[in-house]
Specification:
The complex is a heterodimer.
Chain A: E1 9-16, E2 19-26, H1 35-50, H2 58-63, H3 74-89, H4 105-122, E3 127-132, E4 135-140, E5 148-153, E6 161-167, E7 170-176, E8 185-186, E9 191-192, E10 198-203, H5 206-219, H6 223-231, E11 237-241, E12 247-249
Antiparallel strand pairs in A: 1-2, 2-3, 3-4, 4-7, 5-6, 7-10, 8-9, 10-11, 11-12
Helix pairs in contact in A: 1-4, 3-5, 4-5, 5-6
Chain B: H1 2-19, E1 58-60, E2 70-75, E3 78-80, E4 83-92, E5 95-103, H2 109-114, H3 122-125, E6 136-138, H4 144-148, H5 151-157
Antiparallel strand pairs in B: 1-2, 2-4, 3-4, 4-5
The chains are: A alpha+beta, B alpha+beta.
C-alpha cells in the first residue's frame, strides 16, 4: 500500500491469439515467476493448441482427421463439449465449423481469458481485469475498491463509447462487424449476418458470453430475444446496437448500468 | 438558466421520440406540456418557479446523492406506447454528465423481438473514454493492428 491506501497496479498488454490481451492486475502479480506471467504463458499455450491458423495445432490436426481427440490436449474435448451445448441451445447459430473447417474460436478466446482470470484469483488477486481483444473478464474490485467500469464501443463511431456497464465479478463479450468486417456468417444461409451492428452479452462466464454473442449476432434482430429466452436464467443479458444506432436490450441488462 | 432548461426540454423530447422510433409506432405525446401531473418521483421537489413555458412538465430535484456542483433534473413521466418513461439528467453547468432512467416500460421477449424497445441513444453523446472513467473497452474483436488505434490501447498506456 502507498500512502493513499491504494495498492500499486500493473498494466500489461500481450500480443497473443491474433489480438492483444490487456491485463490490469495487482503489481505483485508481475515478475517472471508471478501470476501474470503464468496467465500469459497459458494464453500462448492455448494459441498453440487451438489456433485454426496453425497447421500444427491440435485443432487443425484433429479437424483434418490427422489426430484423434483422445490424443489431443485434454482441454479440446472440454471445449468441444461446451461448444456443442451452445450449438444446441442456439439452434445451430453457433457452430464450430463457421468456415467449413474446425474452428472453435468463437468460444475459445473467451474461455481462455476466463481461465487466465481464474488463475489470477487462485494466486490471491482480489481484483483484476483481463481484456482479450474486446472480450473482458472482471474479477473482484479494481484498485480503488470500486466496481469495474467497462465501456461498450460504439460500432458506428470509432473511438466513441455507446455506454458503460459496471460490476465486480462479471464478463462482457461483444460481437460485431465494426473491426473485422462481416466476419460472422449465418450458418443457415452461408451469408454474412446482417441486422445488428454489434451485440454485447454480459454474464458470469466469458467463454459462454463470447459464444452467445457470436450466436446472437448471427441471429440478427432476434438475437436479444433469444438471450432473454434461453440465457437470462443463467445470468446472461444482452444489448444490441442496430445499424441505425438504436439499441435494444434484455430486460435485466439495465442492472449492469452505472 | 432559461437557456439550459430549453436545451433539456429538447433533449428529453428527443429521447422519448427515440423510445418510439419505429415508424409503425402510433404517435404518442412525448412530454406532457401542461403544468399539472408533475413528476411522480418520490423525492422530486415539484416544479421550480423559474421554469417558463418551455420548462413546464419538469421538476428539478435530487434523486439520490447529487455531487457538489451538479444538479439533478427530473423529467415528467411520459406515457409512451410501451409504458411510462421517466428520466433524470445530472447536469454540471450546462453539460449533461449522466442520464438515469427512473422509469421505463417493462419489456417482454415479444417486445424485444418486435424491436420496439430502444435504449436512449442520448447516453452515448456524453461518453468518451476519458469522461466515462472506464477500465476496459468491450467491442468487436480487434486484430493486433486494430489494437493500436483502439480505446483499450489508450487505457493500457495511461499511468
Amino acid at each position: 500500500m502507498d500512502r493513499t491506501g491504494i495498492a500499486p497496479r500493473l498494466r500489461h498488454a500481450e500480443h497473443v491469439m491474433g489480438t492483444v490481451v490487456s491485463f490490469d492486475v495487482p503489481a505483485w502479480a508481475g515478475g517472471p515467476d508471478g501470476a501474470l506471467g503464468a496467465a500469459v504463458r497459458w494464453l500462448h499455450r492455448v494459441d498453440a493448441t487451438f489456433s485454426p491458423f496453425r497447421e500444427d495445432s491440435d485443432v487443425s490436426r484433429h479437424g483434418r482427421g490427422a489426430l484423434a481427440l483422445a490424443d489431443c490436449a485434454p482441454e479440446l474435448a472440454e471445449v468441444l463439449a461446451a461448444c456443442a451445448a451452445v450449438t444446441e441451445a442456439s439452434g445451430g447459430y453457433f457452430t464450430v465449423t463457421p468456415g467449413g473447417g474446425l474452428d472453435p474460436s468463437g468460444y475459445v478466446k473467451g474461455w481462455a481469458i476466463e481461465r487466465a482470470a481464474a488463475m489470477l484469483t487462485a494466486a490471491g488477486s482480489a481484483g483484476h481485469s483481463v481484456n482479450g481483444g474486446g472480450d473482458v473478464r472482471c474479477a473482484g474490485a479494481r484498485g480503488d475498491g470500486q466496481p469495474w467500469r467497462v465501456g461498450i464501443a460504439d460500432p458506428l463511431r470509432p473511438g466513441v463509447l455507446a455506454l458503460v456497464v459496471t460490476g465486480r465479478d462479471f464478463a462482457v463479450a461483444t460481437s460485431g462487424n465494426a473491426e473485422r468486417g462481416s466476419h460472422v456468417i449465418d450458418p443457415h444461409t452461408g451469408r454474412p449476418a446482417a441486422g445488428l451492428a454489434s451485440i454485447t452479452v454480459t454474464g458470469p462466464d466469458l467463454g459462454l458470453a463470447d459464444a452467445y454473442a457470436t450466436a446472437a449476432l448471427a441471429m440478427g434482430p432476434d438475437g436479444c430475444g433469444w438471450v432473454a429466452a434461453r440465457c437470462a436464467e443463467d445470468g446472461y443479458q444482452a444489448l444490441a446496437i442496430l445499424p441505425d444506432g438504436s439499441m435494444r436490450h434484455t430486460p435485466g441488462f439495465t442492472a449492469r448500468l452505472p | 438558466m432559461r437557456r439550459v432548461i430549453l436545451a433539456i426540454t429538447g433533449t428529453v423530447a428527443g429521447l422519448v421520440a427515440l423510445l418510439s422510433f419505429k415508424s409503425h409506432s402510433p404517435a404518442i405525446p412525448a412530454v406532457t406540456t401542461s403544468g399539472t401531473g408533475m413528476s411522480s418521483s418520490p423525492s422530486s421537489g415539484g416544479p421550480q418557479g423559474s421554469a417558463g413555458p418551455a420548462g413546464q412538465g419538469f421538476a428539478t430535484g435530487a434523486v439520490g446523492a447529487v455531487p457538489a456542483g451538479e444538479r439533478a433534473v427530473t423529467g415528467q413521466v411520459a406515457g409512451t406506447a410501451y409504458g411510462p418513461v421517466q428520466i433524470q439528467l445530472l447536469m454540471r453547468s450546462s453539460t449533461i454528465v449522466k442520464v438515469t432512467i427512473l422509469k421505463q416500460p417493462s419489456s417482454t421477449i415479444h417486445d424485444l423481438q418486435l424491436g420496439q424497445f430502444a435504449f436512449p441513444r442520448l447516453i452515448s453523446e456524453t461518453l468518451t473514454a476519458q469522461s466515462a472513467r472506464i477500465d476496459a473497452v468491450s467491442g468487436a474483436s480487434y486484430t493486433s493492428q486494430g489494437y493500436i488505434a483502439s480505446l483499450q490501447s489508450a487505457l493500457d498506456t495511461r499511468t
